[in-house]
Amino acid sequence: MIIDFTGKRALVTGAAHGIGRGIAEALAADGAQVIATDILAEKLTDLDASQGGRITAIAADLTVKSDITALVAAHGPFDILVHSAGGVRGQVGRPLEDISEADWHAIVGINMTASFLLAQAVAPGMKKAGSGRMVFISSGAGLGVSLTGIQAYAAAKAGEIGLTRQLAHELGPFGITVNSVAPGFVRSNPASEAQWQSYGEEGQKALLSRIAMRRLGQVSDIANAVLFLVSDKAPWINGQTLPVDGGK
Ligand SMILES: NC(=O)c1ccc[n+]([C@@H]2O[C@H](COP(=O)([O-])OP(=O)(O)OC[C@H]3O[C@@H](n4cnc5c(N)ncnc54)[C@H](O)[C@@H]3O)[C@@H](O)[C@H]2O)c1
């Protein structure tokens, strides 16, 4: 199967590092013009030059609606949206009683609310074109109990999955598909690395033994699934959440 994104414009969030960066680079390598965004401006600088100039890096805070609308107004319309920005925002699992409203909103804001705001911003251009592809990077935490122990993370990721289903029905008649990829454990950010280290040798072995493929995920495992879903090879896959977790 040959996937070619020549002539397509993609918006990829969370592109400073980790999974979002891998997706931005993979889309550009296969021909897309990519607007790669993240709140970490200093970590975006080397992206501009990569993949033959097909990536343009723009810093934005995706919890701020005006940042999103400005980004889409200046660089849209887009054929593809991949929302990978998110994560746990430096938090760790704590008892319910210790969680402040600010802690809650920080995680829900960038994972779930940003999915809604980004979809809202790119949908008009996709409707006009009569086609479009959206993928939200959710998590196994939205399908079951989160290994992080973070209530807001589990809730936000489940929310992204619900939004995926709902938007698929709303936007399908306009030729737009909305899907989600739910990664398993990938050592792609400081939080997942710290979590991995905290398990110790025995805990790491136990975690691997629960994964059918007996290994953790890599950024390319996630990016490859996303590339298929946003390609013209997946026109009738809609409203789905694809676990990419090595098998449980
Ligand atoms: N790594 C894993 O094991 C794993 C597992 C399941 C799901 N996920 C999800 O995959 C996605 C990517 O994870 P990752 O491992 O690449 O993590 P990551 O921390 O490398 O990437 C998240 C990115 O989001 C950006 N971001 C955070 N707040 C932002 C804001 N307000 N505005 C703009 N950008 C902001 C961060 O700067 C960061 O670059 C996340 O949504 C995460 O929840 C990761």
In percent, how helical is the residue content?
A: 40-55%
Rg, nearest Å: 17 Å
Number of helices: 7
Query: What is the mean predicted local confidence, pLDDT?
Result: 97
Major beta sheet summary: 7 strands, parallel
What is the CATH class name?
A: Alpha Beta
How would you describe this structure to a colleague?
The chain is of the alpha/beta class and 248 residues long. It has a single domain (9-186, 218-240), classed as NAD(P)-binding Rossmann-like Domain (Rossmann fold), CATH 3.40.50.720. The chain is 42% helix and 15% strand. The chain has a seven-stranded parallel sheet, with helices on both faces. Strand 4, helix 3 and strand 5 form a beta-alpha-beta unit. The longest helix is centred in the middle third of the chain and has 29 residues, at 101-129. The two termini are 27 Å apart. The model has no long low-confidence stretch (mean pLDDT 97). It binds nicotinamide-adenine-dinucleotide. Residues 14, 16-20, 38-40, 61-63, 84-87, 110-111, 137, 139, 183, 185-186, 188-189, 192 line the site of nicotinamide-adenine-dinucleotide. Residues 14, 16-20, 38-40, 61-63, 84-87, 110-111, 137, 139, 183, 185-186, 188-189, 192 line the site of nicotinamide-adenine-dinucleotide (NAD).
